[in-house]
Write the structure tokens for this entry.
Amino acid sequence: MTEPMTQRYSFLDDYSEGCHPKVLEAMAQSNLVQQTAYGDDDYSQHARQLIQQQLGNPDIPVFFVAGGTLANIIIMASSLRSHEAVIASHIGHIVVRETGAIEATGHKIITVPSENGKLTPEQITTTLASNAHFPHMAKPRLVYISNATEIGTVYTREELTALSVVCKANQLLLLMDGARLGTALAASKSDLTLKDVAQLTDIFWIGGTKAGALIGEAIVIPNPQLATDFAFHIKQRGALLAKGRLLGLQFQTLFTDNLFATASAHANAMAQTLSTAIVAAGHTLSAETESNQIFPVLPNTLIEELKNTFDFYVWEPVDDEHSIVRLVTSWATDQLQVERFISALEKTSTAM
């Protein structure tokens, strides 16, 4: 049974649809094939090998969990001692979108003001200096970044290298939240590869949920010290699925025939089409469109008109008459619906 068609089309997020048809097909075809439980199945093992091939290192451990917040909780709870803290952008996902999940594990988050969502070596150095009254202050130990950031900006190889250097010099761990790593790597501004990320971070994760998987993230641990007993932490946090095959099979599919990259590139292409049209219609952007998130500043009257046919977040007010909205495209975004949005935008803008 299919869902009834509705007038409204969603640009709320990049996981409104179920999963990529190739993922669904793979699950259907393997449904009655018996496999070992808890992630020791053939699909998970093959998925790890495919990811390790892109990392350029067959020995880097890869673990699968169901969701991003779960990945962040497990990583930080297992990597940090009770007195150690996390440095993050003030708009980092763990700061504004995870309900205090990291703080609930007992770790302080030291926030750093950041206009573009990214951190710089200078900010880290300054933060270390202002949080050094030991033992009276929590000790900074881990730097958290996301790529793409909460506002869709992406890190270049030069930027990530500079962060890696300052972290190593100060005995800090570098964690990359990769919920939208696919669209970050596919961005025209990006010159990073998964191999680069593995060489420059201590631990990171690859988002499957927002790249065509039904559920699932792949935690990659280049720093061998952090990998010790990591499976125990996954189990202890309730993240070790009996049917781990579900996660492995999806990543096997995403990393076969370059699907992860091509699906992410489609999301970015749709975002650029929207972004270009919004600017051409005379509106501004609160952040440069670098991946699959667009943040236009629109009149509130126009926003209300567009909401009659499209779903999206009103991000924050700018003044009494304008607000920032967030539009998100995905691997599944329909180009006809993008054109429909542009047509509605242009028609309504002209009428005003």
Summary: The radius of gyration is 21 Å. DSSP finds 15 helices and 13 strands in the chain.
